[in-house]
Amino acid sequence: xxxxxxxxxxxxxxxxxxxxxxxxxxxxxxxxxxxxxxxxxxxxxxxxxxxxxxxxxxxxxxxxxxxxxxxxxxxxxxxxxxxxxxxxxxxxxxxxxxxxxxxxxxxxxxxxxxxxxxxxxxxxxxxxxxxxxxxxxxxxxxxxxxxxxxxxxxxxxxxxxxxxxxxxxxxxxx
Amino acid sequence: xxxxxxxxxxxxxxxxxxxxxxxxxxxxxxxxxxxxxxxxxxxxxxxxxxxxxxxxxxxxxxxxxxxxxxxxxxxxxxxxxxxxxxxxxxxxxxxxxxxxxxxxxxxxxxxxxxxxxxxxxxxxxxxxxxxxxxxxxxxxxxxxxxxxxxxxxxxxxxxxxxxxxxxxxxxxxx
DNA sequence: ACAAGACGCTTGTTTCTACAACTATTCCCG
DNA sequence: CGGGAATAGTTGTAGAAACAAGCGTCTTGT
Lengths: 174, 174
What we know:
Chain A is built from 7 helices and 3 strands, in the order H-H-E-H-H-E-E-H-H-H. By secondary structure, the first copy, chain A, is mainly alpha-helical. Chain A has a domain of 107 residues: Arc Repressor Mutant, subunit A (Orthogonal Bundle), CATH 1.10.10.10. Chain A has a 3-stranded antiparallel beta sheet with strand order 1-3-2. The N and C termini of chain A lie far apart (39 Å). In chain A, 40% of the residues are buried. The C terminus of chain A is likely disordered. Chain A binds a DNA duplex (30 and 30 nucleotides) through helix 3 and helix 4.
């Protein structure tokens, strides 16, 4: 640990605030979704990603990459979602090692039903607290940080999915 | 859920990026601290807050407020830290209901030893990815969000602790 | 064609967190 | 004072995550 340059006052101010956001925001998202839809934020995230995917289906490994979950974690989460009928697991036809996770009709309905409350929470606690300029700054700052957190772009398909222009028939996002 | 205004493309861009940061950054912080110091980020956070407190001591309820922990969570965490000799719990002289958490000498050494590696990680993954201007923007954006996440200012003493001017003899922060 | 290794996912174990229930002390108010 | 409510903290239990190990499948090299 040779000689790390300390953080100056300005950097420290930014960092301690970010840490506080990191500590508070996940709890707020979890609480709202858990209360109104019986889902953790991560579960909602999984369902939302599936809902936007081709055929509402993804291979487990791809889903793990996109959600930054380890294979065991995703396996457990998907099993629980399957128990609730929101997702089903099908053997992958092209590779018998692989499993496809598919959003069921009930899962789709669950996402559609949960989305408005979630968006409202996001607005109330984040977006509506910022000016339009600050929203852009937040995007740029996050993008820069993600360049370090995710250098190989594992999750990039997740957080860049709204960058293109016109947008096809999009669905429940967040 | 009456009629929630959806997020426009710009807002969505910012939000999905922030979610990705929320998903990735805690894991990075935990992994480094766990590997190099045998501490979770939350445990480090608790020790760091104590290290900056008067007498390196805080009442459990105050510590819970500052770290945004529920009382049971803090109780368990402090018990584990006490088992490792990093913290000790003393009855509060002025209120027999209350317990004081005090950072031991070993706990102090642990924080001092862990801080440089932690700061390095914070630099590598966040601060050094940003321009000076962006660091200020991050502070302002986070401050605005915290206004919604923490309206009653429970954690404010934590994330505003470096706002004053000259700064007394500060200690291991992060 | 077959063995060695890589890959994809699951299962099991331990650790941590949330929620609820409980004990003990203090405060409030008649 | 004395009794009810509020406060401070702990414990117990169930649910979710991290880590390690395991099993079946594919790929590669010879």
